[in-house]
Amino acid sequence: MSRLQANFLLLLAGAIWGAGFIAQSTAMATLGPIWFIGLRFAVATLVAVPFALVESRRATAPVRSADRIGFIVTGVALFAAAAFQQVGLLTTSVTNSGFLTGLYVVFTPILTVFVLRKRAHWIIWPAALTATAGIFLLSGGAFSALTTGDVLTIVCALLWSIQMICVGVFAGRSGRPLALSLVQFAVCAVVGCAVAAIVEPISLAAIRGALPEILYSGLFSSGLAFICQNVAQRYTTAPQAAIFLSSEALFAAFFGVFLLGETIPAAGYAGCAIIFVAMLATELVPELSKPKDRSAAA
């Protein structure tokens, strides 16, 4: 898979997450946030099973024990990020949540440098800041004073960065992105349902009320989108992936217009353009700055 194809998959994941943000918000009208996470990832686990089985049959070597542990760590990071975001939505606005979650485009390259000791391509830094500015404008260009939900969402953005770095490390090292998807989904499902059983009430009526959101999130937002992320990150870096995945803010705005009748102000359209420029720069600049093959030219 080429880097261009990988980035297209990441863009597809961003589009699916953008539409899923609507489901995420409306589901909590009848269902608790942790139950929603547990049930959506239970559905996602079922989605990942056949893909992981096919991958396992084609694999030339079993998954190493160290990578299995890494898969579980990735799942814990994913559950924590999803939980902080979902609970944060209870006490913050959609505008604040969309902007603050997008901070992972800044956190990811910073963590990559300090945790993995890897230098990102120079374009990642201005592109990350540019994408963050675009998300801010897309969110309306302003947000209210920080609430508890805002703080939880900032923590969520940091955890998303950790999850992206884990995916980049363990999907690439193991060569088994679909196995990673299955394990991280199962971890989220088990931990989510276990925690929810302790802290949140549940009823069949609540599940039925949120069933369309659970199915969409489980099949697409959790299942398909995270599988796209895990496969694509074998062929690109975590900082670059973060910039393309930040397109979820752009797609969330568009789906809000087409599905909910919301409007985008002029600043929002400027934000869309800025995010697009950041993604384009991330794709084109590394290619254009490669040294030319003189032997081929001769």
From TrEMBL:
Protein localization: Cell membrane
Alphabetical keyword list: Cell membrane, Membrane, Transmembrane, Transmembrane helix
Main localization category: membrane
SUPFAM superfamilies to which the protein is assigned, alphabetical: Multidrug resistance efflux transporter EmrE
Pfam families: EamA (PF00892)
Entry GO terms, CC: plasma membrane
TM regions (residue ranges): 33-54, 66-85, 97-116, 123-145, 151-171, 178-199, 214-232, 241-260, 266-285
Membrane topology term: Multi-pass membrane protein
Residue span(s) of domain EamA: 6-139, 148-280
Name listed for the protein in its UniProt record: EamA-like transporter family protein
